Amino acid sequence: VTALGTSQPASQPAPAAARSAVRLQHLLTLRGQPPELLRDLLSRARDYAKVANEPSTNTRELAGRTIATLFFEDSTRTRTSFTLAARRLGADVIDVSGSSTSVNKGESLVDTARTIAAMGVSAMVIRAKPAGAPADIARAVGLPIINAGDGKHEHPTQGLLDILTIAQAHGRATDFDLSGLRIAIVGDIANSRVARSGIAGLTALGARVVCVGPPALAPRSLATLGCEVSSDLDSLLGEMDAVMMLRIQFERHAPASEPASAAIVKPTAAIPSIREYREFYGLTEARAARLKSGAVVLHPGPFNRGVEIDDAVADGARSLILRQVANGVAVRMAVLAAVMGE
Ligand code: CP
Questions:
Q1: How, if at all, do strands 296-298 and 208-212 pair?
Q2: Which ligand 1 atom is at minimum distance from the Cα of 155?
Q3: CA 154, CA 161: separation in Å to the nearest integer?
Q4: Rounded to the nearest 5 degrees, what angle is found at the Cα of 211, between the Cα atoms of 205 and 212?
Q5: Per DSSP, which regions of 16-144 are E strands?
Q6: CB–CB of 229/223 below 8 Å?
Q7: Whose CA is nearest to atom 4 of ligand 1?
């Protein structure tokens, strides 16, 4: 049994993560984080990734601590992986679902968080619709707070797991120096917290990022975040080392002036034709065939198959989508340990 409490062979060294000295007060954003801190978190996550998805993993690093996950927006990946990450560090977890809290009776998010904090939890993971809600809660509650996605603002642990996945694919997971890599983030960038965290983290580590989409979804103003902006996916595709497709967030779009429909995937003011969107910005099989050797495909999920990404690409050899999901547990272990570790 190693220092991580797994049943690995005794000859296998304990992951260096157990010895890392990364310490964070909160994780609210990747923007402005020092590259050294990003590298420390990513190194810790890389080491946890060796064991993070083995059910027997239980490090006891956070034994005796309780972590509350408060999700005021739907989630499959983020919520589940934070819960697994906390348990694999030996912590207790309480999952609080926004749809069944007293927020529905008019209580504010901050008062709900204060109430949970009064029950003796050690840290909180927050997903909320308003941008800045986790930061508001961090100011009001004297506990470490991790942003699990706030509106269109940031999703820092998703950014870290995307970076870890790209670095592993391109042999950069030793020093996390991404210089020379070109990454395209494609699609509904205007509504994407994943893109904002990705741009901040990838560029801080030396990658060049280009945001690609129709002007309504990839406005020129994104360049202020430190990326390039283009509306011409086909002209760039062959130069990219990684292509991250984004979900069209239909639920955040203004409806088109057409009869209302119960369907989620439907024309909106920004995307009047789904067929035309796929024709210009979808990662179809034909388009993916033009990617250069070694280029990889990512998507944070959930995805609209047949809209921004075709089945054959999502499930194909270049796709790292399930690797991203697996890395999510390791990244969240690293972040929880960093905000709560001794
Ligand atoms: N990528 C992501 O945040 O997925 P969930 O909404 O399922 O957590």
A1: unpaired
A2: 3
A3: 13
A4: 150
A5: 66-71, 92-97, 123-128
A6: yes
A7: 77
The interaxial angle of helices 77-88 and 156-169, nearest 10 deg, is 80
State the CB neighbour count (10 A cutoff) for residue 205.
Answer: 21
Which residue's CA is minimally distant from atom 3 of ligand 1?
78
Q: What is the pTM of this model?
A: 0.90
Any residues with Cβ below 6 Å from ligand 1, and which? 75-78, 149, 155, 158, 300-302
What would the two tokens of residue 106 be? 């008019």
Tens-place pLDDT, residues 98-132:
878 899 899 999 999 999 999 999 999 999 999 99
User: Quick one: which of 88, 135, 163 has its CA closest to 336?
Assistant: 88
- Residue recorded with tokens 């939890």: 121
In single-letter form, the type of residue at position 44 comes to R
Q: Tell me how many degrees the CA angle 157-28-148 measures, rounded to the nearest 5.
A: 45
β-pairing, 208-212 vs 145-150, is unpaired
Asked if residues 219 and 190 have their Cβ atoms less than 8 Å apart, the reply is: yes
CA-proximal residue: ligand 1, atom 6 (nearest): 75
Question: Separation of 238 CA from ligand 1 center, angstroms?
Answer: 28
Average pLDDT of every residue of the chain: 90
